[in-house]
């Protein structure tokens, strides 16, 4: 039996592969263990506390399993309202889980869920970048090195800084799962998960559907005039993206009874009015700019081309109707390698634009997706252009540099945490270290250290997104981290 036939058969893990995987796991695990015992930063994002606090408050009203579904649904509605009705359902479910188990896990200021998501992304990235590498021994070596490189990337540590499973992380997870999956059902699930993880995920889904439709229509055009074929493909691709956007808002409108802030009309009635107004103005500016572009003569001619191409494409697809068009577009999405290339390019462009808009140095969880893309690009180049031995040496050298630079990474994390999350200097990192010790003791029934640091301030959904002299809810923070134990507050 030849090698191609053997690829479909399950392979046993060789001793060499097991040793390489063990070495990579030992390196990553050792660094993680060090950061657990000697964390560079002990902080929890205020939103993480707010999300978990809402779930725990509702969980406390449940007196039997029959009441659990209704209570969980109430908590989802309240969390969605607090989050400006953004519909990030995947993350709400994750916070609901973390709210229930956080106090039962060691190291109070560690989000094991966040750590798991980031490590999962590193594993998916390693699998994606090496899945076509041959022979198997080289694939196993590069996969282990790729996992270690992605897990120990400084941006991964920065993403881990606030112990907050941010929506960008789970969005990356589903994008990687989509690119890795071969079954149509798995890809559909990945798209739905990405759309309901973050607005970026929704844009990625729109881009994926547009790319699939574009490729299907272009292929069906055959020898038709290139301009009309391109116009029809672009127009129907845009309609597919619009259909995804409408479906997304319809689902959220049906579930929660209101539209997300992206298309809400009128004023904002959320408790975060200044932040919501800023978001609204950002989108209004974007739409106004787009509208002004549409008034130029060149754009009007392009719109006429799109219209004519769409009419021709619709006439060509008429025998199968919308269902036939959707089936063909989905088939192209699942089987056409060009779609993956287009989606990858769109991901890079979109994440780069996002980082330029939000700023790389302000909140490190925004450039995390870009770090994943850059790691993928670097590893792909090494695998494609370097001889096997040279490629391993290059990745090992890079990995060694990352490990040697860990002290500098940790120092930078502390400086960033102080500058962004403790802006007025009234709250210090040492205060969080004392709270960490107090929570650990409170979980053992020793409440003296907690009472020594307690300022009797509870969580406040209007409190803000940073810790200041005005908002430092020690009592509310401890209440979340020891829930359901109420011993410290009696």
UniProtKB/TrEMBL annotation:
Keyword line: Membrane, Transmembrane, Transmembrane helix
Name assigned to this protein: Glycosyltransferase RgtA/B/C/D-like domain-containing protein
Membrane spanning stretches: 17-37, 109-128, 140-160, 172-194, 200-217, 229-251, 339-357, 364-383, 389-406
Organism whose genome encodes this protein: Anaeromyxobacter paludicola
């Amino acid at each position: 039996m030849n090698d191609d036939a053997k690829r479909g058969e399950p392979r046993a893990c060789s001793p060499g592969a097991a040793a390489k995987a063990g070495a990579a796991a030992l390196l990553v695990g050792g660094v993680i263990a060090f950061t657990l015992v000697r964390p560079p930063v002990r902080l929890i994002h205020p939103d993480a506390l707010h999300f978990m606090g809402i779930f725990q408050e509702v969980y406390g009203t449940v007196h039997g399993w029959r009441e659990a579904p209704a209570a969980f649904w109430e908590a989802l509605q309240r969390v969605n309202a607090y989050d400006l009705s953004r519909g990030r359902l995947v993350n709400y479910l994750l916070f609901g889980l973390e709210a229930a188990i956080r106090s039962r896990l060691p190291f109070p200021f560690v989000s094991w869920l966040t750590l798991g998501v980031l490590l999962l992304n590193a594993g998916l990235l390693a699998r994606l970048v090496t899945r076509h590498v041959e022979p198997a021994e080289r694939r196993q070596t590069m996969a282990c090195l790729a996992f270690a490189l992605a897990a120990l990337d400084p941006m991964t540590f920065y993403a881990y800084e606030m112990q907050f499973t941010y929506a960008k992380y789970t969005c990356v997870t589903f994008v990687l799962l989509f690119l890795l999956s071969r079954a149509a059902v798995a890809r559909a699930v990945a798209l739905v998960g990405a759309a309901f993880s973050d607005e970026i995920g929704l844009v990625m889904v729109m881009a994926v559907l547009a790319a699939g439709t574009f490729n299907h229509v272009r292929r069906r055009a055959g020898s038709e005039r290139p301009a009309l074929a391109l116009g029809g493909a672009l127009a129907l691709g845009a309609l597919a993206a619009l259909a995804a956007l409408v479906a997304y808002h319809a689902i959220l409108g049906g579930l929660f009874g209101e539209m997300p802030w992206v298309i809400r009309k009128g004023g904002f009635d959320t408790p975060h009015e200044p932040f919501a107004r800023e978001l609204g103005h950002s989108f209004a500016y974007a739409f106004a700019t787009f509208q002004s572009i549409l008034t130029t003569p060149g754009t009007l001619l392009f719109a006429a081309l799109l219209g004519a191409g769409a009419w021709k494409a619709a006439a060509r697809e008429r025998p199968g109707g919308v269902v036939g068009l959707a089936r063909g577009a989905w088939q192209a999405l699942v089987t056409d390698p060009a779609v993956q290339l287009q989606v990858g390019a769109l991901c890079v462009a979109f994440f780069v634009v996002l980082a330029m808009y939000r700023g790389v140095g302000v909140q490190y969880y925004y450039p995390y997706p870009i770090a994943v893309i850059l790691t993928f690009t670097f590893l792909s180049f090494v695998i494609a252009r370097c001889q096997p031995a040279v490629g391993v040496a290059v990745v090992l050298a890079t990995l060694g540099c990352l490990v040697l630079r860990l002290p500098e990474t940790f120092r930078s994390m502390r400086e960033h945490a102080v500058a962004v999350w403790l802006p007025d200097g009234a709250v210090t990192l040492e205060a969080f270290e004392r709270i960490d010790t107090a929570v650990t003791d409170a979980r053992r029934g020793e409440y003296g250290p907690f009472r020594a640091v307690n300022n009797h301030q509870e969580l406040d959904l209007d409190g803000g997104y940073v810790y200041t002299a005005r908002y430092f809810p020690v009592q509310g923070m401890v209440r979340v981290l020891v829930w359901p134990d109420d011993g410290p507050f009696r």
